[in-house]
Amino acid sequence: MDTTDLARTADTPVLVPTIITFGVTDQEVLQALAEYPEGPARAQFLATALKVGVLALKAARGTLDSDAVRREGDRLLDELGSRLNAWRGKLEERVTGSLSHYFDPKSGTFMERVERLTRADGDLATVVGQQVRDAQQSLAKVFEQFVGENSELVRLLDPSGENQLVGTLQRTLDGAVRAQNEAILRQFSLDNRDGALVRFLGELNARHGDLNQALSRNLQAVVSEFSLDREDSALSRLVQRVEAAQSSLTAELSLDNEGSALQRLQRMLHEHQKTVLAQQRDLAARLDTVIESMAARRAEAAKGTRHGFEFEATLGDHLRRVVGEAGDILQDTGTTTGVIPNCKVGDHVITIGPEKTAAGARIVVEAKESASHDLVRTLEEADLARRNRQSGVCIVVHSTKTAPASIPDFRRYGHDIVVRWDADDDAHDVWLEAALMVATALSARAASHEQSDAASFAKIDKAIERIRKALETFDEINKSANTAKSAAEKILERARIMQSQLADQVEAIMGEFGKLKGAQDGG
């Protein structure tokens, strides 16, 4: 190794640049040098490594210069900060490009795919149309095969003389009809001694003798039973019974008779009507009392702050779940005073977890469900909440039910973020989570002590605007996706119904063919 001597004066040594030439044989050093191209980069690396070695040796000897270490640490921190900023810019550019590539409403691949899928000549319509056409062709083939002009069914039902089935059926029916006619005629013929008519006449003669004589003897007795001149005749007894029944029925159906069935029925209906009316009046009175109580409670809740407490509790439950998943800590502070005496402004305080850059930073959240807080009053209360809870950032969450027109959907005002939120709509959770991410980023910026505050706020504002536009696009995508899903479900349901109907028709046709085949085999 060649080197030059140091020039020294009498009192203070004078350091001059030194040129050193030496050979390197250590494998680890050679491997580290190979990572840098030959030239200024490798020379800079060698100078840094030599300086680190000298500092290490001086530290070992107890002569480490604290000023040199501080300067080197500042330089390393500056270099690290510049590289991190460059990496952050590249990351934002890549994320923005990726999101635009997929979700841009004009040129995004996701929107293009959804449009191709749901338009009139899209993939979904093509697939469904092809399925319907295939089903129609299959059904046409089935009908042509089983009930067409050349089918077996048409040949079996052909009325021409060559149809053996029709001819066999006709001959069988003709023979059965002729046999039945001959059997009936034989039974009613007087020439047939064994016929039904001859046997009937024989039984009449055996029981009553000559029919004419029997009728003459019994006709007078029969006529006397139908005479009203005899009180004991059958007709007289029947008339008496009918008159008695009519009199009894008339008495039971008369309102003049207090003991009649109709009078008892009237009294029973009247009593039942009075009971029902009393029950209805009692029920109406109770309903009026309940309605008045409900109206009073509703009016009291509208005038008081109960609904505000309910909104605050609902927001706290939702924030506790989101913050817990992110590794942060949520504290409910709406009922306790802060650093300002007798001041309870600031409903929730979020402490950023130890794993993040802004560990220990505090974010105050103020819940508002009141139509009297416009934007000016909201920002004043946000400033008071930050000071009262010793927080760097404040998020004011307005309920969409009562928020005035001056309250924006999502916007940052310095260290304050104003957002609308609907506790009953899950789609609004994205806006609240975006506000939490922006508040965390603001806390991280404050913790990093950057000098270019204006530039950082400009970047944050641009990021917030991109987030707002992305959330609006997300809402549009969500609505479009729900519409497409609903249309697809309707199409699938119609296809399922059509398939079920076709299956029923085919099953009915096959059943009829089975019956015809069974009849043909039996014949």
Radius of gyration: 52 Å
Shape verdict: elongated
CATH fold group of the domain at 306-449? Dna-directed Rna Polymerases I, Ii, And Iii 27 Kd Polypeptide, Chain: A, domain 1
- Taking the alpha carbons of the first and last residues, their distance comes to 122 Å
Structural class: alpha/beta
Classified by CATH, the class of the domain at 306-449 is: Alpha Beta
Could you report the average pLDDT, rounded to the nearest whole number? Answer: 76
Tell me the fraction of residues in β-strands, as a range.
Answer: 5-15%
The neighbouring-strand order within the major sheet is: 1-2-3-4-6-5
Helix amount, in percent? Answer: 55-70%
Main sheet overview: 6 strands, mixed
Order of helices and strands: HHHHHHHHHHHHEEEHEEEHH
Segments where pLDDT lies below 50 for 5+ residues?
A: 1-12, 450-455
Q: Determine the number of helices (DSSP H or I, runs of at least 4 residues).
A: 15
Name of the CATH architecture of the domain at 306-449: 3-Layer(aba) Sandwich
Give a count of the beta strands, DSSP E runs of length 2 or more: 6
Structure in words:
There is one protein chain. By secondary structure, the chain is an alpha/beta fold. Among the domains are: 182-250, no CATH class; 263-302; 306-449, Dna-directed Rna Polymerases I, Ii, And Iii 27 Kd Polypeptide, Chain: A, domain 1 (3-Layer(aba) Sandwich), CATH 3.40.1340. Helix content is 67%, strand content 6%. The protein contains 15 helices and 6 strands. Strands 1-2-3-4-6-5 form a 6-stranded mixed sheet, sandwiched between helices. Helix 5 (123-147) runs parallel beside helix 15 and helix 14 (429-448) runs antiparallel to helix 15. The protein starts with 26 loop residues before the first helix and ends with a helix. The model is unreliable at 1-12 and 450-455 (pLDDT under 50).
